[in-house]
Amino acid sequence: MTTSAAAPGRYALEQACSAVGLDVSGAEPVRLAENQIWRLPGQHVIARIAQPGQGAAAAREVRVARWLAREDVPAVRLVDVEQPVEADGRPVTFWVELPPQEHGSVQDLARLLRRLHSLPKPDIELGYLDPFVRIYERLDAATTISDGDREWLSGLHRDLAAAWAERPAGLPDCAVHGDAWPGNFVRTSGGPLMMDLERFSVGPPEWDLVSTAVRAKTTGAVAAREYDEFCETYGHDVTVWEGYPILAGARELRMTTYAAQHAANNEEWADQAQYRVDCLRGRSGPRPWSWKGIF
User: Fold this and answer.
1) Distance CA 12, CA 9 (A)
2) What pLDDT, on the 0 to 100 scale, is given for residue 171?
3) Which residue from 189, 264, 270, 273 has the highest number of Cβ atoms inside 10 Å of its Cβ?
4) Whole-model pTM?
């Protein structure tokens, strides 16, 4: 982690900590990416510094975390300070540091999703689910793929968006996590809990279920036995719904454009990004494919 990468976030962190009375001395960068994550040693606090212009999203995440706490849903908890804090033009939020953790199992995911989806819609502003958020921006940034592939992906985006608007009826809308994969549902010594609340919205619960289905049916990351256990634990198999190909297509498009966007800044990911495009375009045989993770 370079000093130059940490410097802008460090300045915002100092301002935010001063505003809420936390000690910034000894702060350690945990991840310096699009959103910066810092640890405040001795205080059991994690600070999350978002990008400029993300104040509304940070405020929504705070509302979601407070609602989950009221409903006693296992999730990351906020530090008891007024937040988010605007510092150096960036929203900063403060979270209770978790004990050592590992990715949750698909059954952990199913249990927590079943609990979340059973709750009444919260009386807080969440907005409606957009499965295609940032697709345009990702395609614009995808400089390692050809113009022809980019145009094809843009066409797929348009087709899927049209199909989404006319999707068949499914389960009743509810609060959804929005990015429900095992990396965002971790297991600690106290049991499983959900993290990364920034994509929470109201929408079809199938969107949360389709992530695991795609990992089983598209990428091969989840074994058939594991997927059966997931469906049994949750009580529903999203792949039997006639709208599944639409949501699965949207998830596959998101995964592909995410890889293509980040390959522009990391040549190690260029082959994986191109492979995902080739899979969607029918150049690499039928599903399931073997997609490697992009970190």
Assistant:
1) 5
2) 97
3) 273
4) 0.91
Mode of pairing for the β-strands spanning 28-32 and 36-40: antiparallel
Write the pLDDT tens digit of every residue in 167-192.
Answer: 999 999 999 999 998 889 999 988 99
- The residues that bridge with 90 in the sheet, in sequence order, are 87
Q: Which 3 state secondary structure label does DSSP give 136?
A: helix
Contacts of 24 (CB under 8 A, 6+ apart): 13, 14, 17, 18, 40
User: Which residue's entry shows tokens 């400089």?
Assistant: 143
Residue-wise pLDDT tens digits, 125-168: 999 999 999 899 999 999 999 999 999 999 999 999 999 999 99
- Measure the CA–CA gap between 195 and 244, rounded to whole angstroms: 25
Residue 210 DSSP SS3? helix
Instruction: Using alpha carbons, select from 78, 68, 61 the residue that is nearest to residue 112.
Output: 68
List domains and CATH numbers for the chain.
3-97 (3.30.200.20), 103-280 (3.90.1200.10)
HEC string for 144-196? CCCHHHHHHHHHHHHHHHHHHHCCCCCCCCEEECCCCCHHHEEEECCEEEECC
Q: With 90 as the cut, is the pLDDT of residue 94 above it? A: yes
- 3-state DSSP helix/strand/coil percent for the chain, to nearest 5? 45, 15, 40
CB 269 within 8 A of CB 259: yes
User: From CA 268, how far away is CA 270, in angstroms rounded?
Assistant: 6
CB atoms closer than 10 angstroms to residue 139? 20
Region 42-58: mean pLDDT is 93
Nearest CA to 179 among 291, 17, 64? 64
CA 115 – CA 205 distance, rounded (Å): 11
Supply 120's token pair.
């009444």
Q: Which two tokens stand for residue 17?
A: 């900590």
Using the predicted structure, report yes or no on whether residue 241 has a pLDDT greater than 90: yes
